[in-house]
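[stage:ingest] chain + small molecule (manganese (II) ion)
[stage:ingest] validated
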Amino acid sequence: MISLTRHLLERPRFQAGQAGELSVLMTHIARCGKLIARDLNRAGLLGTLGAAGTTNVHGEQVQKLDERANQTFVDVLEESDTVRVVISEEMETPWAVTRAQASGTYAVFLDPLDGSSNVDVNAPLGSIFSVHRMDASGNFMKRGREQVIGGYLLYGPGTILVYACGDGVHQFTLDPAVGEFFLSGSGMRIPPRGKVCSVNTGNRSKWDERMKNAVESFQTDDPGTGPPYAARYSGCLAADVHRILWKGGLYLYPGEVKKPAGKLRLMYEAAPLSFVVEQAGGLGSAGDERILSIQPAAPHQCVPLIIGSCEDVERVERCLKP
Ligand code: AHG
Ligand code: MN
Ligand code: MN
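[stage:predict] done
[stage:export] tokens:
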């Protein structure tokens, strides 16, 4: 059994720099995962389900557990000494760490609770994170390719932590009795082609013709492309992408004719998941360019997302070409 602590100690990347700053940061993110998992486990008993009565920067209804997960990250990262700024789906403006001695060099982008429409029905939820090193001028709006760490926590039947930092993808499972994450997968590789297509087809009427045809091609039995793909869609991006990481296939959240950038957010959903998926041999695409190549213009900007097995994502890209 290799604990997260031991795993980090054995990785030179996490020991470089003053006092292994990245190692401290990963440990703090893992602690957030433990605290949020505990809150989710007991939410039905503590009256913390349901809506908070506010809307976030994207105009979406905020759940009480969205607020709670966001506050957990803020409180824990405030103590980390390695983080200077936190950018979260649940905070309109970037939050500057207030500790007087804050000397942190990292910016952390967060979706504190992903899939929060699942909150009331005990379906899977996640937290998605992306770490960037700030440059001397304090800039943290960088391309996904420049991430130092990208990853997610997934709260399903078990709680898992998946991250990539340039040497493949590592997965840890929380042993709740011990309160520690243990390594449960390393060097994952996405099959070049899968059998699952994960997309909310209820939005079909909002897509342009090319996207309609692309998705339909995965639902059609065709001698050229093979049997139709199975439909799987949980409403939690982290859970749907995690399935694809292990089994292959693709997840799409397309842009819409009236909303070309779609719903998902570049910096704390599409980019960290693309970072993980690409280090496992898959692809993350916005249709006409790679997610990891996009220069961000705003912290909360949205982007269309097609992510998963290489051949499946490239097939959609071909269908979308004018
Ligand atoms: P969040 O709960 O952080 O707002 O994210 C929800 C996202 C994502 O997890 C999921 O894949 C997608 O939105 C679901 O949206 P639809 O209900 O529109 O399909
Ligand atoms: Mn989300
Ligand atoms: Mn969220």
